TrEMBL record:
Belongs to the transpeptidase family. FtsI subfamily. Residues 70-221 form the Penicillin-binding protein dimerisation domain. This is Peptidoglycan D,D-transpeptidase FtsI. PANTHER family: PEPTIDOGLYCAN D,D-TRANSPEPTIDASE, PEPTIDOGLYCAN D,D-TRANSPEPTIDASE FTSI. GO terms for cellular component: plasma membrane. The lineage of its organism: Bacteria, Pseudomonadati, Pseudomonadota, Gammaproteobacteria, Chromatiales. Keywords: Carboxypeptidase, Cell cycle, Cell division, Cell inner membrane, Cell membrane, Cell shape, Cell wall biogenesis/degradation, Hydrolase, Membrane, Peptidoglycan synthesis, Protease, Septation, Transmembrane, Transmembrane helix. Gene3D superfamilies: 3.30.450.330, DD-peptidase/beta-lactamase superfamily, Penicillin-binding protein 2a (Domain 2).
Amino acid sequence: MPNPSRRARKPLPPLKPRRAPNLVLRRRLLMSGLSLAFVVLTSGVFYRQVIQTEFLQREGEARYLRDAVIPARRGMITDRNGEPLAVSTPVETVWAEPRKLIDHLDKIPAIAQALGMDAAFLRDRIESNRDKGFLYVKRRVTFEEARAVREAIARHKITGLDFESEYRRFYPGAEVFAHVIGFTNIEDRGQEGIELAYDRVLKAEPGLQRVIRDGRKRTVQQVEQVSPPHPGRDLALTLDRRLQYLAYRELKAAVTEHKAKGGSLVVLDAATGEVLAMVNQPSFNPNSDRSGGSERRRNRTVTDVMEPGSTLKPFVVAAALEKQVISPASRFSTAPYSIGRNVVRDVHNYGTLDVTGIITKSSNVGSVKIAQKMSYGDLWSLYDRLGFGHPTGVGFPGESRGLLRHHSTWRPFEHATHSFGYGLSVTPLQLAQAYLVLASDGVKRPVTLFKRDPLMQAAAAPEAVRILSQDTTRRLRAMMETVVSEQGTAKQAIIAGYRAAGKTGTAKKSAGKAGYSSNRYQSVFAGFVPARQPRFVMVVMIDEPGAGAYYGGVVAAPIFQKVMEGALRLFNVPPDDPEPSMMLAQHLQGTAP
């Protein structure tokens, strides 16, 4: 029998390995972390999808939805017949995103060459604004420049450079209309002339639209219009483009011929007071060359003053006729005439002249003796009512009011000098307005540059007022016809087929405390045509002619003849009576119908 001690022993179960405590801990932490991350992620998704939905949509839109400006056209300026004098044309502006373009500095020379700019200057601008998202590179570029920039962008694969649309002001009349129209700056705001005076009427209000842009800032879709653009209002001037060109050509030729410092010319419609032409020399081109300062840019017709000289003598006669202290038949000796320590004399000894002869020969002595038959206040009152010393109200920026001192400050010799155009100063436009009274049978009308009032809220223009009687002005016009004759001082102003009337003026320029210059003059002619029923009034002034001749009848009168001859043809004004000499004699005798 088997030995119990040798009974087979049961094998012991294998021992299970004991887990390390740190491994268990790691697993628990991992599970906890995953659970927490799941909770956080789920919470974040819920928060963003449910709670922050509107906020995130706004933020997303802000990254591709933009407000873009809709350019608007500035108002157009035209002449009386609708011919454009100032227009706005669409152009492109090049802009950059410096923070992107900074990575393409090696391409700057190509961009600068396309735009005609200095490469070093453009590089400095980009580097100094490297953190900005917008920078104008060049505004209102030409078509050729825009094409060259696009080619450079495509060829060199440049990013951070783009275009936007703007309007550029263009002046078809260039230097011919420059002083009246003026010009605008880079922001399309008026700087001179009508552009400045009526900027609030002409300026446009840009609109606003919401657009979608891609990552390169390119517009890919227009979403909605926020506000519509409002173009500026158009203005129609009284100027006639054809007459303006003619006047400018003749004035420029005369200034060149006589080697003058400058000149001014203005033509008015005798029936309405509308300015038909207004030109100056020297001039400038508002489309390109705006240099030269005020010497070239100012409108001398309304800003510069002159002593009118003998062109005032008809008004002295008119005042005396109105006061009935003289008659057309009154006669005066024109020998040298002493007033205190001063002596008044004429260029030639004309002997004894009647009133018409004083006008015809432009006698200083005769004019002084007529003035002395009136009080200081009588002469001053007429000058004041004619508008001397007051702005014309034409609405032009920088208009001068001239100078007319009150008669209470006059001394005897100043009373005398005021009778032949010294001691006071006027603008060419003021003198033209005064001659408009003579052409309008004694009625003073406001001068204007507009066919209608462009500002609906502006006060109505002042009514026409009577300054002189009809009989006086008609007699005076007949006397002034003799000036534009073979016997007068302005025979070079004669217009074939028409009876013209006017008055020459030659005034020495002031030399300050030294008195008057002996070799610096202003040559003036003022007149109207046809004489019996005037259609046009003109004043022309040549400043400091330097080629020898300086008398108004020699320097200024020929310009009057050429411009008026063209004006009569352009406006189809029929010729005067075929026998002007007979009608002139009847007017001088007071028997004309």
